[in-house]
Please model this.
Amino acid sequence: MDSTAALDQFDDAALALEISKQGDLIKGLKAQKKSKAEQQPHVDRLLALKNELAARMAKSAEKKFDRAALESLLLKRFFYSPSFAIYGGVTGLFDYGPPGAAIQNNLINLWRKHFVLEEDMLEIECTNLTPEAVLKTSGHVDRFADYMVRDVKTGEIFRADHLVKQVLKSRLEDDLALKNGTFDKKKIPKGKPIPEQLKPAVKAEYEMVLESLDNYQGDDLWKLMQRLEIKAPETGNDVSEPKLFNLMFETQIGPTGQFKGYLRPETAQGHFLNFKRLLESNQGQMPFASASVGKSFRNEISPRQGLLRVREFTMAEIEHYVDPLKKEHPRFDNVKDVVLDLYPADRQLKGLGTVRMSIGDAVAQGIVNNETLGYFVCRIHLFLLRIGINPKRLRFRQHMANEMAHYATDCWDAEIESSYGWIECVGCADRSAYDLTAHSKATKEKLVVRESLSEPIVRNIVALEIKKAVFGPAFKGNAKFVMGYLNSLGSKSDVDSEADISWDAEKLKELQEKLKAGGGQTTIVGTDGNEYILTDKMVEIVERIEKISVREYTPNVIEPSFGLGRILYSLFEHVWWIREGDDEARNVLSFNAAIAPTKALILPISSDKSFVPYLEQVADALRSEGVSSRIDDSAASIGKRYARNDELGTPFAVTIDFQTLKDGTVTLRERDSLRQIRQSIEVVVGIVKDLVEERIIWSDVEERYPAFEGQDLSA
Model:
């Protein structure tokens, strides 16, 4: 093989591996004391391989995503900015400016259309303040926490899993730079050693850990950090053992200081507490879904990634209530052929990467637990594509065993790739019946569905009857402890019958045998741990026929949960690009028309006063159609005005020129292609409205109307 042949067959990783193999081959030839002439072809090939990798790295560096440039643009155009900036700011808190607020509202409106309207959901709005008792029941008081570590000398705080990810990624990046000769030694602080290339086994381990990091918790995470020698990145100091830090903001409700509460960490609990009213609002019909959009609050340990990790954020959540015995979805056939990039838990553990398959196949093969969960995973996918997320940078990752909530049967995260890596932006979990059951138990309020059966169920049952006239006086104040024991012989009933307990026949027969063996009495242990004498005068075990006409059950919940700030930032990265011009490169944000903060720019070709009535006519017409627009009649050149609004993501521009004065027509410019058409004001306004409401796309416009090549600049 010639030294320059077939290098394009290798991707970057394979090319780096080939360089390593070629180096080992040359070392072997030298060890065998082969002549320089025999070694030279292999040396030439090694040089060719290295030159190819260096060229690729140089090209990659040119195309490397410039996050600082994007964030500078977003700040300049006031999409968002740090809160309280003139006071020095507070990390993890941001304010949205006019374009940022507009685009988030458009995102929410499209979310409502896609889910609430199209899926016939019931939208609610609940309070941000939540009493401690509610969050104690939900498990947040005890379990809503992340692991944090401290630099043992400076006291700087890090979220433990994020620190591991940061350190390992840095080591892998240094390793690649060392291999291809692009490592910058100047970045190493004085007195610090230059890193060495990683051994293949070490590199493979780092990559595996990064893929499965969510599986490490508690002591396992600490052992991992010790084994990999994870240090504070800036100082190189040791870090402390990971400790749990509860992420909720605590507060006091009322003036006494005795009613403890929290700012809600999620919007879901309000749905569950209002389940009975929601079921009534839906005429008792199942399945159904509730939806809400609102603020949530999390006291993040070290928010360092802009809008991706903040302490106050907007969530859009759905709680879809479904019969646990009927998790099929009536519209599943509509989406079963949609193909997704899935990252199942078993492939994560093996480091195998994603697999493309239809959601129908994923459910049929048991990769996704059930049709209803699969349906919403697919609907999330379609929504994210609809707003402009790049499908090649979207995947659905299944939670692994150690990160799965104990009550969940399955959970998938929609992860979007950005310059920060793969970021969870939407979670979709089958929460089983955990939340409704927990709140029902805590409040003694039945949060159940009662379903009338078309055919009554007739069955033989074994039941325990308590003779209250004897039982109560015998145990007096301790009766509840004995009842606790008796209740353990059954479970809460799934049906509407005479008793609230569905008894375990085997356990009752065992008790009956003990009573017989003891001559009508036996010793049991109450729920207080004390022993009590139970007699056949106090309880009787009977067999009877039971007819069931109404089935009572606690529904399961499928929960899609959207972090809108994360989606929004990911969208910024996906739609930003640079338009190379004759004089300078210009920023463009290619928002979809439905999402763009302002839909149309209206501008005159010059400052001629005769254009003013037409500007107002176009603005009024767009306004009456509910389409946001902005007039730019500043003194800047028309090119600079176009460029300014391209930076704001405005998709269309309506230009008034001297031909408008002659025939009442205007031009309509499309932001990305720069192509234009010329039609009457009425027609152009109708086109813009149809584009914004997603009835048509720009290619449809170009098919229907002739292209326009240039404005009439003559008076």
About this structure: Confidence is low (pLDDT under 50) at residues 1-5, 492-499. The first helix runs from residue 12 to 31.
